[in-house]
Amino acid sequence: MKPLFPPFAPDPNEPRRRRFRPVPLRVLAPNLITLFALCLGLTAIRMAHEDRLELAVYAILVAAFLDGIDGRVARLLKGTSRFGAELDSLADFVNFGVAPALIIYSFTLNGLGGFGWVIALVFAIASCLRLARFNVMAEDPGRADWKKDFFVGMPAPAGAVAGFLPVYLHFLGLPMDAYMAFPVALYMLAIAFLMVSSLPTYAGKSIGKRVPRSWVLPIFVASVAFVALLLTFTFEMLAACTLLYLAMIPLTFARYRRLEREHQARAREARESRKDEPVDHRPSSPS
After folding, report:
1. What is the C-alpha to C-alpha distance for residues 64 and 58, in angstroms, rounded to an integer?
2. Is the pLDDT of residue 142 over 70?
3. Which stretch of DSSP H or E encloses residue 206?
């Protein structure tokens, strides 16, 4: 009687199974920063529902800081990946779209009932659309170099930090009674409109490439002074920076239009110079 499972020798020519290659640590490090920022955004929602509004705001601010450095860390370590880009977009939607909308809703918009919830939805969806447009434009190879210093619309992290302006003013002593819910709703609609609009906002990507030697010490002093003021007068500085950022949008738009006119003028001059070049109509000699 033959055994049911006779022994057999493996085929030496059988191809080996494909093993997954180990992932370098330099690729994992930026994604870990993004995941930590995502945990802060989710924790901020919990803090808001537990009436610990100040901790919720701090969590979103730290998440915004981490969002600003994860991409730079990835480029510095040469650990950029498609997975990291997608993870960053999903984390940004939660941290700067969903979390701020729920926090502001629990803070004051819930006094408007269903209308307040619609405002929260509009803010979250505007952040989602803003991030989707950013991902599409980032893959556009034909974008002019001078346009890379500008964002199209307000970035989602800036929208989240600016959207907390009513909370900053509340901690500074401004009463947020029931009659303030409607002005806050209008303000949140304005921030949502800025995120999905085509208004250019300054990106600052050219900052940090080269710094004049005479500016090094003043930059150190100004940075230390800013951090000290932010830690000492947190909500005063946040409110002042938010108002200053909003006031700079018209100035940024004027600069963008001026650079656009200069670019169009140079393009016209280049086309006219090509038209004025003499054209050789002589037939080419046979080789």
Report:
1. 10
2. no
3. none
* 151-185 residue pLDDT tens: 888 998 899 999 999 999 999 988 877 788 899 99
237-245: Cβ within 8 A, 24+ apart: 238/61, 238/161, 238/164, 238/168, 239/165, 239/168, 239/169, 239/172, 242/161, 242/162, 242/164, 242/165, 242/168, 243/165, 245/158, 245/162
Residue type at 231 in one-letter notation: L
Q: Which domains can be identified in the chain, with CATH numbers?
A: 25-138+147-205+215-269 (1.20.120)
Q: Are 55 and 5 in contact (CB under 8 A)?
A: no
Task: Quote the CA–CA distance of 197 and 199 in Å, as a whole number.
Answer: 6
187 membership: H or E segment, kind and range: helix 181-196
Residue with tokens 């990946």: 81
Q: CA 102, CA 114: separation in Å to the nearest integer?
A: 13
Report yes or no: 81 and 97 within 8 Å, Cβ to Cβ. Answer: no
What is the pLDDT, as a whole number, of residue 119?
A: 94
Round to whole Å and give the CA distance between 228 and 219: 14
Give the phi and the psi of residue 200 in degrees, each rounded to 5: -75, 135
Please state, for a pLDDT cut of 70, what percent of the chain lies above it.
82
Confidence (pTM) = 0.80
